[in-house]
Specification:
The chain contains three helices and ten strands; from the N terminus they run ββββαββββαβαβ. It is α+β, with helices and mostly antiparallel strands. The longest helix is centred in the middle third of the chain and has 12 residues.
Amino acid sequence: MIRPGDPVPPDIEEADLLAAIIIGEPVLILLPRWGVTTIREDGTLAAADAFAAAIHAHGASPLTDLPFTGEPVTDWTATIDTTTGARITGPGAVGEVYTGSLPPATGEWLAQAADNQQHGHGIVVITGTANPTPDAALDMIAEGHASWVRASVRLHTGPDTHRAQPNSTPPPRRSELP
């Protein structure tokens, strides 16, 4: 719990990130390691979950139905670099919500993310509170405890991920070189 005037907790790893495909859609599942309750100066509850309140105030919605519809929400961005990691940012005071390693992503996931980037569809970011395992994340979604937002995506793939990119030509084999 953070009260007015309390210091911000020190920077530590604050979330886990999973990659999945849900109904043909590549998604990132962001799992904060803890919630923050905010209290007003008069002692009343400002927000039971400050993160959820902030993302909902900036375009996220409860995950109550599939498929995911809509265009990327303004100022939400997921930057994915297969060699250096991932970064997710939101508008205004939401700011940076994740910077860290990229979860293991299949070639299919990377190809779909690249296709979404090429066509301006962005990427779905799902969040809520759950243990950092695929089963726990799916339970969180099934139980209605998740929220989602579609962010614009910036995908940068390293030299060894060319097979994951649609419509790309692999580099020539040594035997094919002149």
